Amino acid sequence: MRKYSVFALAREAMRAHKGWEQQWTSPEPKSEYDVIIVGAGGHGLATAYYLAKEHGITNVAVLEKGWLGGGNTGRNTTIIRSNYLYDESAGIYEHAVKLWEGLSQDLNYNVMYSARGVMMLAHNIHDVQVFKRHIHANRLNGIDNEWLTPEQVKEFCPPINLSADARYPIIGAALQRRGGTARHDAVAWGYARAAADRGVHIIQNCEVTGVRRAANGAVVGVDTNRGPINAKKVGVVAAGHTSVIMNMADVRMPLESYPLQALVSEPVKPLIPCVIMSNTVHAYISQSDKGEMVIGAGTDQYTSYSQTGGLHIINHTLDAICEMFPVLTRLKMLRSWGGIVDVTPDRSPILAKTPVPGLYVNCGWGTGGFKATPGSGNVFAHTIARDEPHRINAPFTIERFTSGRLIDEAAAAAVAH
Amino acid sequence: MLLIKCPYCEDERPELEFRNAGEAHLVRANPIVDQSDDDFAAFLYFRQNPKGLQFERWRHIHGCGRFFNAVRDSVSDKFLTVYKAGEPKPNVEQLVTRGTTPAEAVVESPAPRTPRTKKAEA
User: Where is the Rhodanese domain (chain A) (predicted)?
Assistant: First the structure.
């Protein structure tokens, strides 16, 4: 793989850009691999990359039924933060933020990580109490998070509406300065390029149709629309379709799949300098480098695999956005779309071994998995390579729903996140 | 937004009047103390989450307030049928082959419309 650098750019500029290599190849599937990863989204590709880089396992296939990064990796609102309440969550999300900080260098691919700050707005006394508790808990875990007065909110994000007449007036905010955004497509492409360079096969348009098991129950491979592929270890990283894949191995999951929507506006001049989140009025907004307002809405109330949600859901979010930013009321929305997110009862993920030997699962990221992409892939690769969880993901088991040791971020945030 | 028929009100109403209440036909053990932890976890947390036809509960919370069950395709979001709480699971295969779902009936045989120009002439 030729390294990307300013010198490479200059060299190619001199010869009409004819020397750029393909970023990854599309090999035919072999009959056997050491490890198969099901799903070439950010988490799956990151898992393959860290398997190759940190554990020396390069005989790996990443199977993708569509195109890589075409699921939730390409559909999210690219928010990165680690200010979660519980120690277990803080551990895994902060692990991810630390990897984000060096990811472009590590992958030799500009993922455009921008630590522009994530500001979570408080609209009532309950919000204030919850966020202050979060701030204290985060600081005990070594994670930056600070309280802003309304004046400081306005200073940090000038277009915001501080009017006391607002239906939900802004009375403060929690700010994580190291939070921000990254370019989601570049994350998938960067991991794909770096993994393929280390020998990983990325096989697109290859849908898993069955999980093959030996007489003793252990995994021996998968069936696909391009024929059977053998592997003694299979990692399922299939987001909204995890229940479907796990059902092929007769494992029922504590998951439900919901449509989650996002939308972008027409591009305008730089206006919003940070990420704004409001759990209370349910709105998420940031501005992309292209100038579009990137807006996240909520999930529909019913489970679905339709990759489309109800119009009233995004309408509700736009009502909130317009009240927070009256300057945006005349802005036209260009596109809206939906993705299918797999939600656990406690809104924390599952990264674990399963009751089936050789079968591993990384799922349940619900409405907020993008931020965890590097950390998730890193500890999941460890789990697959060593057949035991990393210290960081050890609490994120399936068994916690039987033992009752939940990591209840659902109750902590009282909202999808 | 979904259009949902309440089997009690016998009317199709917008989704905003309803609250989805998850997978249907989950039965709590009685007495519950005799249940193993695994069985209780299965009842409380583990779900089929199928891609295709699913049985689900709805509550007509801004209408009659009653719970009922529905069969819906989780890919097309189309309802095959709705039925009252306590009624047995309908035979899904029969529903699919007959194709007599309320939603499909509406799509396939729209009420004949007279074009406006003709109406003006009449």
Answer: 35-79
Phi, psi of A229 (to 5 degrees): -130, 130
Those residues of chain A whose CB sits closer than 8 Å to some CB in chain B are 241, 243-244, 247, 252-257, 301-306, 310-312, 345, 401-403
Range of the domain at A284: 115-178+257-343
Tokens 């927070």 — which residue?
A: A324
pLDDT in tens, A298-333: 999 999 999 999 999 999 999 999 999 999 999 999
In the predicted structure, residue B27 carries a pLDDT above the cut 50: yes
Question: Are residues A31 and A169 both part of a single domain?
Answer: no
The single residue listed with the structure tokens 């305008």 is A268
Of A255, A304, A312, the CB nearest to B47: A255
Domain boundary among A343, A374, A389: A343
Mean pLDDT, chain A, integer? 96
How much is the pLDDT for B99? 55
User: What is the rounded CA–CA span in Å between residue A154 and residue A173?
Assistant: 10
In tens, the pLDDT along A27-54 reads: 999 999 999 999 999 999 999 999 999 9
Last residue of some domain: A343, A358, A387? A343
What angle in degrees, to the nearest 10, is found between the helix axes of A373-386 and A87-107?
100
Cis peptide before B31 (omega within 30 of 0): yes
**Does the pTM of the predicted model rise above 0.90?**
yes
Q: What CATH number should be reported for the domain holding residue A327?
A: 3.30.9.10
d(CA A275, CA A294): 10
